[in-house]
Amino acid sequence: MRYFEDFRVGDVHELGSHRISAVEIRSFARQYDPQPVHLGRSAEPMIASGWHVAAVFMRLYVDSVISGSAAEVSPGIDELRWLRPVRPGDLLVGRSTVLGATPSLSRADCGIVRQRGELADDSGRPVLRFVFYGLMRKREYDPAAAGVIHPDTLGA
Amino acid sequence: MRYFEDFRVGDVHELGSHRISAVEIRSFARQYDPQPVHLGRSAEPMIASGWHVAAVFMRLYVDSVISGSAAEVSPGIDELRWLRPVRPGDLLVGRSTVLGATPSLSRADCGIVRQRGELADDSGRPVLRFVFYGLMRKREYDPAAAGVIHPDTLGA
Fold first, then answer.
1. Which of A25, A53, A57, A59 best tests the B interface by mutation, with the highest count of B CBs <10 A?
2. Chain A residues touching chain B at CB-CB below 8 Å
3. In contact, B57 and B117? CB cutoff 8 Å
4. Could you tell me the superkingdom of the organism this chain comes from (chains A, B) (predicted)?
5. Do A33 and B49 touch (CB under 8 A)?
6. Interface contact B32-A59, CB threshold 8 A
7. B47 vs A136: CA distance, rounded Å
8. I need a labelling partner for B95 at 20 to 30 A (CA). Which of A28, A67, A102, A121 fits?
């Protein structure tokens, strides 16, 4: 289990990859972003909704980082940029980089981790970049983690 | 059809509303944000993925504004904040406000419209707020719009 204390500035997490399909692009678009160019009903080549691309990043991040972390809610994101169109068949490769880690002012049991999120295509060209914030619980406040200090050692 | 020239600072677009269900929250979470609290598999009450909430905004915005506009791609968003948790049954009410409109430096046929996007619950409390950018085509460059000038009038 990874706690607030385990996120250090400069840490890079490789998040694996996801190959996006036309079926998936159309399915997301139908529900959340029904523009012709995302539905494959435009004269121009089909491209994925930008929100879909961001959601693909989130899935990679949840599977690689959040699932093994003491993660709480996220207050938000900054400076999100869609840098290149994403097309059916593109392989999206994820990475997150820790930019900052500071104790939370409102919750003593947590810290805020500031990270850069990125997706690149299989040629390494960036397609998505943004900064996001996540609240992570501190190890010292976690009853489960605190259990690693055996009571017998407390008086030593 | 609404062109770049029709977006003026201060314009407010009411985007309608969407009532979010547990089925929809779980379905989005399963595919893009499989954290227990979004899947309804946590001791805490179920809340929607923040990316899902943003996608709901997009759907309202596409239906209300983009579908009747000369919209091109979006370069990105800034300062996105998830202000309150969204729970099954919540009604999400959308609004967009034009913050700025400037000609594009890279595309003479377009301008960039900067807008605030917001979702509130049915008590008017904000749940999502962000700034987004959208490229819109100019009326003067649109062959269809130019067609309203009838050739017979050109020599008049």
1. A59
2. 28, 31-35, 49-51, 54-56, 58-59, 62-63, 66, 71, 73-82, 85, 130
3. yes
4. Bacteria
5. no
6. yes
7. 18
8. A28
ipTM here: 0.91
Structure-token pair, residue A75: 């207050």
pLDDT, tens only, B92-142: 999 999 999 999 999 999 999 999 999 999 899 999 999 999 999 999 887
Distances, alpha carbon B141 to alpha carbons A36, B98, B133, in Å: 21, 22, 20
Nearest to B76 among A62, A81, A85 (CB): A81
Task: List the domain boundaries for chain B.
Answer: 4-141
**What tokens were used for A108?**
């003593």
DSSP-assigned beta bridge partners for residue A17:
A93
Residues of chain A with Cβ-Cβ distance to B62 below 8 Å are 33-35
Min Cα distance A28 → chain B (Å) is: 9
